[in-house]
Amino acid sequence: MQASVTEDASAFAPRRSHKRSRKSDEIVQAVIDICRNKGFSHITIKDIAKQVGMTRSLFYHYFPDKETLAQAMVDKSVNQVLARMEEWNRVRTPGDVKGALETVVHVARSIIADNSPLRQQMIHSGNGGLYTRFVDQVSKAIADYFCQTAVQDFARHHQDQLPIDHVREMLIVLISGFITLLRVQPDTSDETFIHMAAQTLHLEPYL
Q: Which domains does the chain have, with CATH numbers?
C-alpha cells in the first residue's frame, strides 16, 4: 500500500510543477503589461496581485521579491530573441558571412521596433534600468549564440583562421552598439550597419 501511495504522489508532482510554471508566466506577462504605463520601480506587489487576481501572500509563493520577478521578465524577453536566432540558424547557409551580418542587424532592429515594454518603451515609461539590463543580457546571449554557430562555421570554412581576436567580446560591443544606434538614429540603413560590422570584424574580404 505504501508503494502505491508514493507512486500516486509522484505522478501528480509534474502536473503541479507545470501549473506553477504557467502561473509564473502569467505573473510575468501581467507585469510586462503594467510596465506599459508605469515604471517598474513604482509597481507594487499589490498592483501585480490585483492584475493577476491573487492575494499578495500567494504572489510570494511564486516570486520571493521584485528583483527575482524583474530577472524573470528580462529572461523571457531574451528567450524570445534567441528563439528568432534559432529559427535563423535552422535555415541559414553555412559560410554566408553577409547573411549572418544581416541577421544581427535585423534582430537588433526588431528589438527596438518591438512593442514589448522590455524594449524601447521601457525608457519612456521610467524603466531605464530594466531596459539596460535587457540590452546587456541580450547582447551577451546573441554573441554566445553566434560563437556557437556562425563563428564555428566560419572557422571551419577558413582553416580556423579568424580575422579578429576576442571574438565574443567584439560581438557584444557590436550588438549593444547596434541597439543603441538604432534607438537614437532609427533611419540608419541596413547596408550601413553591415559595412560597420564588416569593418569592425575585419570581414570585408568575405562579403
A: 2-206 (1.10.357.10)
